[in-house]
Amino acid sequence: xxxxxxxxxxxxxxxxxxxxxxxxxxxxxxxxxxxxxxxxxxxxxxxxxxxxxxxxxxxxxxxxxxxxxxxxxxxxxxxxxx
Length: 82
Hints:
mainly beta, SH3 type barrels, 7-stranded antiparallel β-sheet, 7 strands
């Protein structure tokens, strides 16, 4: 399962945004981090991702090819306030 994983793109990637019921290509820049919010649901290998507060569709192949998985550190117990 890929849902919830984050990837930092080492090269620009192609995303698609649905604007006015049309798919609009969006260039996601190198260095951007995308969070996968859905596993592939079609034969094209498209996944939904969050990037910069936007929900986009991207090809999983592009993320695998140009992205490096990142792991968010767990919060330390000292950061919790009761």
